[in-house]
Each structure stands twice: as C-alpha cells, then as structure tokens.
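Hi there. Long-time user, first ticket. I'm pasting a complex I've been working with (about 511 residues overall). I'd like to know whether the download I got is complete or cut off, because the file seemed smaller than I expected. Thanks.
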Amino acid sequence: MSDLLNMLGLAQSAELLSLSPPGWGGNLLRGLLNSLQIAFGAFGMGLVIGLFGAYGKLYGGPILRDLLAVYTTVIRAVPELVLILILYYLGSDLINKVSEAMGYGRVEISGVVAGIWVLGVVQGAYSIEVLRGAIQAVPPGQIEAARAFGMPPLMLMRRVTIPAMMSFATPGLANLWLIATKDTALLAIVGFSELTLETRQAAASTRAYFTFFLAAGALYLIVTLFSQVIFGRIERWARRGQPSLRGGPR
Amino acid sequence: MIGLRDLLKPHRIVLILLFLAFVVWCALSLRWDWLPKYAPLALEGLWRTIWLLVVTTILGFLLAIPLGLAQAVGPWYLAAPARVFCTVIRGTPLLLQIWLLYYGLGSLFPQFPAIRQSELWPYLRQAWPYAVLALTLSYAGYEGEVMRGAFSGVGKGQLEAAKSYGMRPFAVFRRIWLPQAIRNVLPTLGGETILQLKATPLVATITVIDIYAVSSRVRADTLIVYEPLLLLALVYLVIAGIIAFFFRRIEQQVPSAIQRG
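Hi, the file is complete. Here it is re-exported in full:
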C-alpha cells in the first residue's frame, strides 16, 4: 500500500490526510460531521415550515397567503450569504434581548443551533414551493373522498395527502437536501467550523491547498452520490402504488 | 403579473400601508449617515457584481452548449467526461470550488518561472480572473445539465425536415436545433441566472470588491450591522426582479405556435 502511494508520489498527501494528529484527516471528518448535522437539522426544519406553509398557501386566508408569498419571494431572491448574516445577527440579538429581559444576561449561542436556524429558514421557503406543488398534484377526488368519509383534517393529512404527494415531492426534496448539504459551506463565512472552514484552516497551515480542497470536494461528492442513491430508493418506495410509465409488469 | 385591481383589495392596502410604515421607520430611526461616504464605493461594487454576473453567465452558457450536446448525442468518450464534469460541479459547494481555484492555483502558479514571466502574470496575481473562472465553470456545470434535456427534447422530425431541405449540419444546429432548445428551457434559464446572481457574493471571500464586500466593509468600519445588510438585500431583490422581468419579456416574444406544434 505505502509502496503504491510512494510510486504515485502521493505519500505526502496521504500523510497529511491521515486521521491521527500529525495528519488533518480527523479535523476534516469532524467538519463533515458538523456539516451533516446542520444539513439534517436545517432540512428537517425546512420540511416543517414547508408543510405548514404549503397548507397555509393552499387553504389559508388572504392575509396569510400574501405574507407567505412575500416570505418565499424574498428568501428566494436574496443571496443565501446575505440571509445568513441577517438571520445570524437577528437571531443572536433577539435571544440576547429575551434572555436579558428574563434576567439571565447574555448567552453564547452554539454554532450548530445558529446554523440550523439560519439554513432552516432559507430551506423553508424552498420547501413550501416544492410541497405546495406536490399537494396540488394529488388528484382532488382522493382528498374529497377522504372528506366524504368524515376524516378529520389531521388524519386526512397523515393518511391521504402526505402518502399520495410523496412521489411528487421526492425529486424536489432530494434537490433541497443536496442544496442544504452544500449551503452548510456558507457557514464558514460566519466562522462556524464545518467541513469547508476546517479544510481551509488545514490547507493554510500546511500550504497543501490542492490536497485538502480536493479531499473535501471528494467528501462532498460522496455525500451527494450517496444521497442520490438513498433518494432514488425513497422515490421508488413512494411510487410503489403507481403503475410504471414504461408499461408492462415491473 | 398582479394587476392594479388586485393590489387594491382591502387587506392588501393594509399590508402595503404597514410595509410603508416599516420603510419610513427604517429611514427615520436607523442610521444612514454612513451612506454618502460609502456611496461611490458601493456603486463601484454594484458595477462589479453586474459585470461578473453578465460575463460569467454568457461565458458559462457558451460552455454549456457543447457540454449539453456531448451528453445528449455525443459519443461515449465525450459524453462521459461531460457528465463527470457536471456531476462534480453540481456535487460540491461553489465556495469550495472558488477557494480551490484561488488558493490552489494561486499557490501553484508562482512555482513556474515560465508563468511568472509571461504576459498573463499581472492578471494571474489578481483575484478576479479566478472569480470569473469559478463562476463560469459553475454556471456551465448546472446549465450543461439543463441543455442536455433541452437538446434531446427537440422533436426528431424537425431535425430530419431541416436535413431533407439540404441544410448543412451546422446550419441545422444554428437555425433549428439551438433556437428550439433554448426556447424550451427559457424559464429554467431565468431561474438559473437568478441563482448565479445569488452566487456572486461568494467572490468577496477571495478579496474581489463586489457590492457584498462593500457592505461587509461598512459593517467592519462603522459597526453598523443591519442597515447595510438591509440595503444589500434590497439591491439583490431589485436585480433579481430585473432579471425575472427581462426573461419574461423574452418568453413573451417566443411564438407559442411552435411550442404547441
């Protein structure tokens, strides 16, 4: 193994990337873990906002609908980087005001929570649009039938709307998940030590820029490709009740 | 588009009044005294943002056409690299790509005396060529995927008809295939261009002074946090609105009979 690396001239890179302290591999993996944690949290928060927002846009009153339209339009037109800064300062200011009013003094906000809050609000706007489109694609007869059987709204949502819209929503949600994983890189700007910032620190202190940036790129790519496989499975599972478009038995 | 009559519904009037009250409150009670001092710098930054957007969109689109063609109809030895390129670009964060090019290439180039002595060296020492390169490649990667679908979506009969009229392959491409492919994906292209606008502030991290960098400098110099950021968000909203308007105008010019046929 080491002979092979020597032959390719990669021995130095392998040493830099090794997991134990002289190498920086451990730092990169820790950064990746942080990134994934935030991506999961933000994606989940986005889904919750998206579900309620989509229902609000479809069935809400005129004021709620207008406010949601403003939210989705503004979030989708302003760069994530700017939103991250605004939401970051706004969030920490609000929390400090509340905690000072309650007499606790200033609190230190953990980077993970701040990251999830910031990216979650951004993801929410995109989720609303994806889920709204998916809910609209459910044949209205199915929802009417459930109503006719006297299902209460929450049960209707849980038993009919969500399962029926899953197949329409999965491609869009898969895209959103990939955006979430890549947007975590932007948190490097506010100094949160996720994968991209860890990479830059490792690269700056060893001067081996290509090695580390390529390694981090490979990590992101692995996450992307792995997610695509998982979402492919979820989509096949969500479509299990639908006839195949190709025709004939599957 | 929302007509005037829609805007005059009672609840909308109340919302608009509330919004105007918010704007007035912002103008009166927030600090704007830094504005005159930084206005020239901000205009320069705005110009740089728009310049970056236009140049990288055009260059990226020119690169996306061969990428899309290679994936749609190319032989495997062209299709495979094109697909790998699009996957890698779309699978890694743009910030990482920018830093890889700027710090990676930037630390590699000085090691070669040939490059240091070449005519290009004064440019390669600055940050903006790396910004242009990274943004162009990124746009090309995303658009290559869009154009793949666009090229394979043009009806085969159209191309055969053009061929049977004796058009040469390049004329078929220029007059029939490309225009129809672009027409089919115009809405997507508009959305992608807004995404590209939202990607431009990342170049501020490699010391290109765009409008975002100007707002960061105001924040660092004066410790005023919200005012520059709010103004910055407004600027991006307006540019995004202009892009959307521009693309809607182009879409309206497309004869719909062709799309239906």
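A couple of notes from our side: Residues 39-260 of chain B form a domain with the MetI-like fold fold (CATH 1.10.3720.10). The mean pLDDT of chain B is 87.
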